[in-house]
Amino acid sequence: MGPENSIQVVHPSLPVQIRLQNRLCVILGGGRVALRKALKLKDAGAVVRVIAPSLEGDAAAWASLEIEHEARPYGGPEDLKAFLVVAATNDAEANAQIALDARTQGAMVLRADAPGDSDISFPSTLRRGALSVSFATDGRCPALAARLRREAEVRYDAHYEVFLDLIAELRAEPRFKALPGRERERILTEIAESDLLASLGWEQPEAVREAIFHKLEELVHPTPRKGSVTLIGAGPGDPGLLTLKAAEALRGAEIVLHDALANPALLDLHAPQAERIDVGKHKGNAVMTQTQINQLLVQLGREGKRIVRLKGGDPYLFGRGGEEARALSEAGVGFQTVPGVSSLSAVPAAAGIPVTDRDFGNSVGAFSLHKHHGEGPCEDEWHRMAHGPETLVLFMGKSMLQHACDRLVAHGRPATTPAALIINGTLRSQRVIQGTLETLAGQVANEKYSGPGLIVVGEVVGLRQILTPSEVLA
């Protein structure tokens, strides 16, 4: 195969950090782009020399920089004896020549107008003290990198800077330095994967410092390891609705016991290394009984493992989390509970239905249509539902839709009461069928919908017509 037929492999850029303090960086050009590059270089501690007939744009910004300005045109390769050369003129041919000349002097090159002809690029970077979070797109869309940086400002707040300062204090501790390298790595990993960072949002830094140094004390004077179980609510389905505290717990888990309704993307994202045990129900068949799940949680907790029990929605709302917590408590196994975003309000909200509204429904009740041992509600319970809260949210009722509508009407709810069935709530595959207690079951009868379903009954269902874009209305 001749050279003209060879395939050129284009490799992605390698993200690196370069220390520029006291290193000479030369910028060719004096416009707005040159100013932006000069600001970044000075922020990194570089010595900046700008070669351009004049400095344009924000005069105050230029004046604030301690730079060398040589007010003249580019004079040739002798101008480029530097660590880094930035070609930022408004002439593409001039920038190309500057890049060629700079490489003859052994300098790295950044062409502001041609990322593909650059040796390095400046990513969009968020700094929180010692933490740097950078986004780059290999020059394809710097605006997207800038957007991601802005979003990161919310995710990575000022607590990260405080946290890293506390870690630096730990690393300077003589007892920490005296530990073997593997033990130092272990304690730093445990601290990073713990919920101590998240707790800075509501704890004083001194309390977090004490917790960090307690980890050191545990290594210096070890005690038998105790297991822990964390009951986590995974939310209604959308991975984005997992809470930050739940994500922290997942990242520190050694074993995750998960339900079928917990989105597997959560495990791929937050617990890729953890052992996974499926204890959910699949098409009516339980992998384990609830008693077996309780026994397994107790057994693993006693073995000193960090266990996460991942449950759909909220663990204490029809999630049997209370039963599991009782079993752990009775066995003397430590546990904690991380509440989840509940389907009670989140699924209707995603479908454009507020479960309460001052004009259409001031009360809401949650009911499961599958009780202990698979039983359904008794007649007294149907009566209380029919005459109880203005809004009813019925869980695990897709297969009982016709029966539920019939019983509510039989016990006094008007047949014209608005009702909706929501399938796969909060997911892209969400499907909403809207009708009344009289019509809804018939609307669903000839359709095949896969996935968990939630029934909402009440006048608030009618608000969906104005709270949901018309193109997604069923």
Question: What does this protein look like?
Answer:
- With 474 residues, the protein is an alpha/beta fold.
- It has helices spanning 32-43, 59-64, 92-104, 142-155, 159-171, 174-177, 181-193, 196-199, 205-220, 244-251, 264-270, 290-302, 321-331, 343-350, 379-387, 401-410, 440-445, 464-467, and strands spanning 24-28, 47-51, 68-70, 84-87, 108-111, 124-128, 131-135, 228-233, 255-258, 275-278, 281-282, 285-286, 306-311, 335-338, 364-368, 391-395, 418-423, 431-436, 453-457.
- It is globular and about 95 Å long.
- The chain has 18 helices and 19 strands.
- It has 4 domains: 24-122, 3-Layer(aba) Sandwich (Rossmann fold), CATH 3.40.50.720; 157-223; 226-341, Tetrapyrrole methylase, N-terminal domain (Cobalt-precorrin-4 Transmethylase, domain 1), CATH 3.40.1010.10; 344-472, Tetrapyrrole methylase, C-terminal domain (Methyltransferase, Cobalt-precorrin-4 Transmethylase, Domain 2), CATH 3.30.950.
- The strands form 5 sheets. It has a 5-stranded parallel beta sheet with strand order 3-2-1-4-5, with helices on both faces.
What about the largest sheet? 5 strands, parallel
CATH superfamily of the largest domain: Tetrapyrrole methylase, C-terminal domain
CATH architecture of the largest domain: 2-Layer Sandwich
Helix/sheet category: alpha/beta
CATH topology of the largest domain: Methyltransferase, Cobalt-precorrin-4 Transmethylase, Domain 2
| Rounded radius of gyration (Å) | 31 Å
Specify the number of helices: 18
CATH structural class of the largest domain: Alpha Beta
Helix content: 25-40%
What is the strand arrangement across the widest sheet? 3-2-1-4-5
What's the number of structural domains? 4
Q: Ranges with pLDDT <50 over ≥5 residues?
A: none
- Mean pLDDT figure: 88
Strand fraction: 15-25%
Global geometry: globular
Through-space gap between termini: 58 Å
Strand tally: 19
